[in-house]
């Protein structure tokens, strides 16, 4: 597949939705869809890396997803652990740097250990950043930023007037995260579901009815072909 794009997003984020519906269509339990979805993660990670995308951020488990049935959460955690072990090969072979955003401390210890191992192992890689949003909530991230900055004010380290957008960006879970250029949501829902609220401010949006386990390189290219036609004005007159 040798496609060239005139304008590629530097940072793509994906709300990987529709695993449950995909399984239901096949009369299988929801976890079947999650398992298939993990394969899509590997395919899309490789393709984004091959295309030279700077960062890929994937919404894997939201703060609100803790409200799902215990059996589904347990399965997702087991799947995540297995995925991390398996994905290390892809990560290392493609020079990918791995990180996470979210309340990682809420995850099972066995998962945290694998996350740490993968981060450590890939820390010196210089290619694409693969960031998994886990136990992540956009509003919670903003609350955490407010707390961090308020503490600095309380300690007399900074003045209220020193607070600006740059300082807020640098206080997010991933300081220096490149601005989001393209948000993709699979599964067709026209909503943000508490993802990257701060970072989304001028991101382009691409929502496809395709369910996450059916998403593939061709589907990604459709989003990228559309992205290259977008005129990004950032409020200005061009
Ligand atoms: C997305 O698929 C995966 C997670 C939220 C972990 P869903 O499980 O939300 O699938 P649908 O939306 O019910 O089809
Ligand atoms: C968003 O999907 C979260 C992830 C993809 C991890 P959800 O399925 O949880 O979102 P809602 O409930 O449809 O908004
Ligand atoms: Mg869903």
SSE layout and pairing:
Layout: E1 11-15, H1 19-25, H2 30-51, E2 55-62, H3 70-93, E3 97-101, H4 109-122, E4 129-136, H5 138-154, H6 165-170, E5 182-185, E6 204-207, H7 217-229
Parallel strand pairs: 1-2, 1-5, 2-4, 3-4, 5-6
Bound molecules: 3-methylbut-3-enyl trihydrogen diphosphate (2 copies) and magnesium ion.
Magnesium ion binds at residues 17, 187.
Give your account of this protein's structure.
With 238 residues, this protein is an alpha/beta fold. It has one domain: Undecaprenyl pyrophosphate synthetase. Helix content is 43%, strand content 14%. The protein has seven helices and six strands. The chain has helices at residues 19-25, 30-51, 70-93, 109-122, 138-154, 165-170, 217-229, and strands spanning 11-15, 55-62, 97-101, 129-136, 182-185, 204-207. A six-stranded parallel β-sheet has the order 3-4-2-1-5-6, sandwiched between helices. Strand 3, helix 4 (109-122) and strand 4 (129-136) form a beta-alpha-beta unit. Helix 1 (19-25) crosses helix 2 (30-51), helix 2 packs parallel to helix 3 (70-93) and helix 3 packs parallel to helix 4. The radius of gyration is 18 Å and the shape is globular. It starts with 10 loop residues before the first strand and ends in a 9-residue tail after the last helix. The model has no long low-confidence stretch (mean pLDDT 97). Bound molecules: 3-methylbut-3-enyl trihydrogen diphosphate (2 copies) and magnesium ion (MG). One 3-methylbut-3-enyl trihydrogen diphosphate (IPE) binds at residues 15-17, 59-62, 65, 189, 191, 193. One 3-methylbut-3-enyl trihydrogen diphosphate is lined by residues 15-17, 59-62, 65, 189, 191, 193.
């Amino acid at each position: 597949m040798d496609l060239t794009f005139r304008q590629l997003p530097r940072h793509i984020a994906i709300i990987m939705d529709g695993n449950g519906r995909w399984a239901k269509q096949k009369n299988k339990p929801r976890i079947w869809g999650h398992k298939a979805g993990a394969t899509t993660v590997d395919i899309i990670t490789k393709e984004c890396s091959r295309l030279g995308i700077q960062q890929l951020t994937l919404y894997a488990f939201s703060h609100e997803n803790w409200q799902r049935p215990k059996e589904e959460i347990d399965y997702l955690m087991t799947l995540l652990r297995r995925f991390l072990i398996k994905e290390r090969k892809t990560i290392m072979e493609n020079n990918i740097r791995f990180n996470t955003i979210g309340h990682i401390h809420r995850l099972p210890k066995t998962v945290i250990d694998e996350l740490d191992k993968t981060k450590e192992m890939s820390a010196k890689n210089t290619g694409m950043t693969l960031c998994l949003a886990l136990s992540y909530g956009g509003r919670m991230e903003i609350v955490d930023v407010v707390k961090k900055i308020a503490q600095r004010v309380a300690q007399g380290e900074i003045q209220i007037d020193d607070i600006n957008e740059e300082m807020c960006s640098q206080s997010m879970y991933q300081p220096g995260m490149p601005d989001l250029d393209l948000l993709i949501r699979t599964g067709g829902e026209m909503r943000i579901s508490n993802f990257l609220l701060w970072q989304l401010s001028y991101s382009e949006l691409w929502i496809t009815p395709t369910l996450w386990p059916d998403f593939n390189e061709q589907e990604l290219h459709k989003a990228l072909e559309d992205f290259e036609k977008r005129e990004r004005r950032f409020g200005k007159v061009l």
